[in-house]
Structure formats: C-alpha cells, structure tokens
Amino acid sequence: MEPRHTADVWEDAAETLAHRELDPSGFRRLVVVSAHPDDETLGAAGLLRAVAAAGGTVELVLASDGEAALPEVTGTDRAALARTRLRELADALAALEVPATVHRLGMPDSGLRTDELTAALGPLLAGADAWISPWREDPHPDHAAVGRACVAAAPVSARGFGFPIWARTRFDPTDPVVPWDRGYRLRLSEADRAAKRRALDAHVSQRTVPPGGHRPVLSAATLTHFLGHREIYFREPSADGAPIELFAGLYRDGADPWQVRTSWYERRKRDVLLAALPRERYRLAAEPGCGLGELTHALAGRCDRLVATDAVEEAVAAAAARVAGLPSARVSRSDVDDPRALPDGADLIVLSELLYYLPPERIDAVLDRAAAALRRDGDLVVAHWRQWPAEAPADGAAVHRRIVGDDRFTPLVEHLDEDFLLHVVRHR
Description:
seven-stranded mixed beta sheet; single chain; Rossmann fold; alpha/beta; 2 domains; 15 helices; eight-stranded mixed beta sheet
C-alpha cells in the first residue's frame, strides 16, 4: 500500500491541528489492542515505551496472528507465517524495551468482526485505566473493527485512544473525517525514534518482498510515515456518558473523591466563580449536580432562594448537612434533566463540572431547559476542568464552545487559565 502523500504532511498536521499533548505518566495499566502483530509498533511504539518507563504495565491483545498479510502470494503457509509474525513481535517488544503480557485471540486475519471482538475484549479491558487500538475510521477493515470493538467493550472509567495507521498513508490529514478536535500528539525523543526503528526492523516478513511476491507489505516509503518525531492519537470517549452508579460508588462512605473541601483548585475555582457573578444578589438560583455542597454553601449567601440538586443520594445527604441552618438553600435529589433541578423563574443557573459528563443529546436538553427556566436577563454560569475526565464524552472546551455559540445567550464573562474554564452568559 504505497503512500499518496509525503510523511511530513501528517507530521505538520500533528503539530498544528492536534492541540493536546498526550501525558501517559498516569497510565498504570495500559491495554493495547492490535488487529495484527506490528500495528502497535507502527502507531504506538513511543507510547508503549513511555508507559513502561513511567512504571506502568503494558498488556497487548492480538486479535489475529497476521497470517493473511500476504494474500496475493499463492501457496503461502499461513500457520508458518503466523509463527514468524509472533516471533517478530517478541523481537520488536524487546527492541522497544517494553515487557508486555501478550493475549492472543486467534481470530481470522482479514476477517475480524466487531461483535465477536467486543465480547472477547470485555474481560481483557476490565480494570484498565487506559487502552489504545488502531483508529476506528482507519481504512483497513480489521483496524476499524478493532477500534469499534474497543469503544464498545471498554469500561467508562478507562481513557481510550485510537491511532491512525493506513489513514496516515491514504488520507489527507485535512479530510473532515479526521477528528482533530479529539487529537493528541506524543513527542518522541531521539532514543524513542531509534528504538522504534529497531522494532520496525524486527518485522522482517512485512518489510521484505516475499518469495513469489512483488512488493513488501511495509515499503520504505510507507515506513517513513511512522518514523517521525510525533505519534498521533484520537481520544475515543464513551458515547453514553458517565452513569450515575459510577458517582454513587465514589461518594459512598463519606468520600470526597475530588477533594472539593480541601484542594486549592476547588477553593480557587469557587472564589473565581463567585467573583464572576455579575450581580451582587439573585432572587432564585439553581445548582444541579451540587455534589457535597461546598459551592452551594458559598452561593447561598448571594441568593434569596437556592435550589440545589444532585442525582446521587449520598451527595444530597452531604450537601444538605453542609447548608443546614441556611434558610435560603434547599437540597433535594433530582437529575439534571428533571425540571425540579432547573425551576422556572430562575435568574441564576450554575453548572459546574457537570455538562462534560453528559452525552451530546443530554447537553442539548439541559441547555433547552435552562433557556426555558431562566428569566430574561438571567445568568447561566458554566465551569469545567480543562483536562478531559476519563468518563466524559467531551472535554470542557468543547462544551463551552457550544454554550458561547448558542444565540439564546450573550457572553458576559470569560475566564481561562491552565486549570479551568469559566463562562457567564446572559439569557437574551
């Protein structure tokens, strides 16, 4: 498969269009799912090295043994080729200095099915805090099948990423199908690049012309696409959002899972939010997703009435205790979709660290309800962490762009720093 364009096109795109740097230092257990033995070397060798160097564990799941890599060569001993490719994989991992547990699924090369992969991958992905696979829109059908299966099978608490392989040789990076809004780049050191070259050299069967063939699977021109200074990853979030049960588990036994009571980040964010409120006092305010009630307690002093709600019973109990004795505040259990969470006539709605946990259609529903509930000239405040939580379908920046661009609201206040985003918009 000869490239249609030069390798530096994707290199440049990674620098200019991927606005995030991938930080693998927190990946304690990375599960790498490959359609064939060499996918991980081509697309993710640098990441495997980074995780191993940081003390994390790497597990590799091979969907197939790559026995059909040379379909045009008649008379190929497929079983022998599979054994060869497995030996080459072991040599490549050694060249990368990555100790990895390898799980073989033994599914047919060039015949991978998403439904079968999804069922097989569920137990292997359980407990992972990160996974990677070939990108689900990659033009090789096996790569696409693996990518789609990982999205379906992975736990919502695991960060998932797809890496392009044949897309780097066949697609123009400016093609609209390429999701740069979810793009990350990983910079490779010279030591990483040298190790990756050695690992690719180990895949001899793919780099040389086979007997009876006329071209290698990985030509010299193709390999240049994978020997640059950057690897490219696309975040693959859960499409369904974070389930309530996940948060309920975090809040059990009086836990403070985000250190909202103690962390400087949380205390500073509350102070900035209060300072950003355009009015000194509000008649009726709503705070869905109130959590443990620290922001609720602070807002109560600025409101005649404050309706705070959360979908998690443990959070409601903690928030109610936090504002006990404050007559302006009332805390009850309700999901953000419920009209009780966003009562009619509100002149202030605060949505802090909430919307990015919702799928797009629920965000639309919440914004529709907020627009209906707010009085004319009422204020909507949104604040989110700038990183991308594992359980979130979108990052905070995407959510805020959606709200600032909503013609039902006029932007009033914007705060942007290295930790969080905050906007205040006013209902027109």
